[in-house]
Specification:
405 residues; mainly alpha; Amino acid/polyamine transporter I; two-stranded antiparallel ribbon; 2% strand
């Protein structure tokens, strides 16, 4: 029996990871402030994501281990090896803990656009019970520890999210000419460098490079499945890119100058395009929060497993302790009523600054014959990979100049 979703898996989980509340927030603000002008930054980011995630998937299939294990194996000097491990731990586990608060808060914002009141009073405390529901769902899915079930749940949520955002964008009936100009003609309006940086950081996510290399081993048998893995990567990331662009298109239809997150976008679209826009966006934002709330702790656990050589798989005690720490951190921070938007914006910019460092490690590893054998990078792949690294370094430098004068 023909099953079109048979070979869809790890790539969709990567898309589920980068299309989170952070993406919704950054793309909403980009569309609101600059219309279609910065769509080129998303298009480049999507291309860069495909290139780097293909390297990551290829590494997992050939080497049979993740990126963290490969880096440890290739760094011979002890102090260099543990410095690299420390950087990876700080970048991924600590960073994902901060991200998790934004993921959960974003899911709450999605439901708050549909339901007027999701808080209950206990003594003198106001508690948003949706935070704990989202945390509970994410924890339950992760605790099951079954890759096939996890994959099916996340693929379903990504499809729901994609339909929600793309249908909303279609309701706005964007001008095709302006849309194509925004995608293919790069422009950088004054003051937009931090937004460009955030768009890159929310799409080309460093922790996905670790997650993908680990997940391909759960789905595929080995290098014989490289063609299927590449197809899965390309289709899934392009779909994720369409979702990001759809959010920009929705926000560009409003351009009120007052959109700070997905909930504001839903409210802004409602007077123009009716209740459907609000419900579509609310469902999409909730799905984005849930998917990222599952994948961020899982990625952190895979990184810790690689760095500290944990034994066992998804059900091992150490693996569960790491994702539980990240998940609980996110739930607690969300409950303290910190502004999710500020956490999200900070995380995206930090992501973009860390990206060239992690990308350098990846490109270096996939050129090591002892690890990749005949499947090491071609000259063209290296040229493109180095070009992506240089582009992100230039953006990082421009960001520092902008921030520090």
């Amino acid at each position: 029996m023909f099953n079109p979703l048979k070979n869809i898996g790890p790539g969709t989980l990567v898309a589920a990871a980068f299309i989170g509340p952070g993406t919704v927030t950054v793309c909403s603000k980009a569309g609101d402030a600059y219309g279609f002008t910065l769509l080129w930054a998303l298009a480049l980011s999507i291309f860069a994501t495909i290139v780097l995630q293909e390297m990551s998937a290829r590494l997992g299939l050939v080497y049979g281990k993740g990126l963290a294990e490969a880096i440890k194996a290739q760094l011979q000097q002890k102090w260099i090896r543990w410095s690299a491990v420390g950087l990876i731990i700080a970048a991924i586990i600590v960073g994902n803990s901060a991200y998790q608060a934004g993921n959960i808060s974003g899911g709450v914002l999605g439901l708050n656009t549909i339901f007027s009141n999701t808080t209950i009073s206990i003594a003198s405390l106001e508690i948003n019970y949706v935070i704990w529901i989202i945390g509970g769902i994410a924890g339950f899915v992760l605790y099951i520890g079954n890759y096939k079930i996890l994959e099916r749940i996340l693929v379903s949520l990504v499809l729901v999210m994609s339909l929600a955002f793309i249908l909303t964008a279609a309701l706005t009936a964007p001008d095709l000419g302006d849309l194509l100009k925004g995608i293919f003609i790069p422009k950088q309006p004054e003051g937009s460098i931090l937004t460009v940086m955030a768009l890159v950081g929310t799409t080309v996510v460093p922790y996905n490079l670790f997650l993908h290399a680990a997940l391909v081993k759960e789905k595929w048998q080995g290098i014989s499945d490289l063609k299927a893995a590449r197809k899965d990567t390309i289709i899934s990331i392009i779909l994720g890119g369409f979702v990001s662009m759809a959010i920009v298109i929705c926000a560009a239809a409003v351009q009120s100058g007052q959109i700070t997150n997905g909930a504001d976008l839903a409210k802004g679209l409602q007077p123009l395009f009716g209740e459907y826009a609000k419900y579509f966006l609310g469902i999409g934002l909730f799905a984005a929060g849930i998917t990222s709330a599952i994948t961020a702790p899982m990625a952190a656990a895979y990184v810790a497993k690689g760095c500290f050589s944990f034994e066992g798989g998804l059900k091992s005690k150490q693996f569960r302790l790491v994702w539980l720490f990240v998940l609980l951190f996110g739930v607690i921070i969300s409950s303290l009523n910190y502004k999710a938007v500020e956490i999200i914006n900070f995380a995206q910019i930090v992501n973009a600054i860390l990206l060239p460092i992690i990308a350098i490690f990846l490109v270096w590893i996939v050129n090591q014959v002892v690890i990749m054998k005949q499947y090491k990078n071609s000259v063209l792949q290296n040229v493109i990979g180095i070009g992506i690294i240089l582009f992100t370094i230039i953006l990082t430098v421009k960001t520092f100049i902008k921030v520090f004068g």
